[in-house]
Design brief:
alpha+beta; elongated
Length: about 180
């Protein structure tokens, strides 16, 4: 009986560790990646603002060859909304809405419906290095509630960073052709 109690106590402790760790992980985090593109800022900005262009460069859209996102509103302007619904759980269902635009920044709200519900924000920030070179920074802002913050911080953050880096490399390749 003593051995059984020790085994049960060990199991309880092992199960409790992630919940305890999650108490010390921030609920909010930002993923930020940058790329330099050998094109003027206006060219890079005008390409990125068009949601339909994501079919050419977005790793999330390209993950499902049968995915054809729909766009409502005027593409490339505030209020434009891109919706998607994939049978592939890695892509899922959701939408993004352009919420703000300045000559140096485009902000979007992301709404995830499946496989998990959630909300996030993202932004693309444009800086002219010179007349023919642009630095673009892609940021993703997450706010996860406890205890999901641990999983999001440990697994979601690196996956988003890797995918955003690929997206920016794809944009660079397309625009520098």
């Amino acid at each position: 009986m003593k051995v059984l109690k020790k085994i049960l106590l060990a199991i309880v402790i092992l199960l409790a560790i992630p919940f305890i760790v999650a108490l010390f992980i921030p609920n909010k985090y930002t993923v930020s990646v940058s790329e330099t593109i050998n094109k003027p800022k206006s060219v890079v900005y005008d390409y990125i603002r068009i949601l339909a262009n994501q079919e050419q460069y977005s790793e999330w859209v390209k993950a499902d060859p049968n995915l054809h996102p729909t766009i409502s509103g005027t593409d490339g302007s505030i209020g434009a909304k891109q919706s998607w619904n994939s049978k592939d759980d890695n892509v899922g269902q959701g939408e993004q809405i352009i919420t703000a635009m300045t000559p140096d920044r485009i902000d979007v709200d992301l709404i995830f419906i499946k496989p998990f519900e959630g909300k996030a924000k993202a932004a693309n920030i444009f800086t002219s290095v010179n007349d023919s070179v642009t630095s673009i920074t892609s940021e993703f802002y997450a706010d996860e509630r406890y205890p999901f913050n641990l999983m999001s911080y440990c697994f979601g953050r690196p996956m988003i960073k890797e995918t955003q880096q690929k997206n920016l490399k794809n944009i660079k390749t397309i625009l520098e052709k």
